[in-house]
Amino acid sequence: MTRRRRGAAPAAGAGVVGGDRGAVTAELAVGLVAVAVVLLAVLATGAATITRMACVDAARTGARVAALGESDAEVGAAAHRVLGARGGQVDLRREDGWVTVDVSVPFTGWSGGLQARASATARVEP
Description:
Layout: H1 23-67, H2 72-83, E1 89-95, E2 98-106, E3 115-123
Antiparallel strand pairs: 1-2, 2-3
């Protein structure tokens, strides 16, 4: 065994067992991919939740406006104002003194045609 002076750099190949060189870089690369995938999933879920909440708000707003006796066009316009740029489809049913508004909006950032749906029912005001 050779002795080296304190503070001197080790000789080439000394102290390297099994060739672990670059292992940290590879582990970091795999770890960063996993973190990126989890972050993407969290962001997509957050976007879907926001879309769902906007859908629920639009359905409730439409039901309130319809309960006040406004026209179908006014109900659709009120629901679309709440939805904003998301677009979506608004359906209205009136039967036996009750009004039901169904709203469906496609999720942003999700493939496969997934949609958020909400429905709200209100009694028509006399």
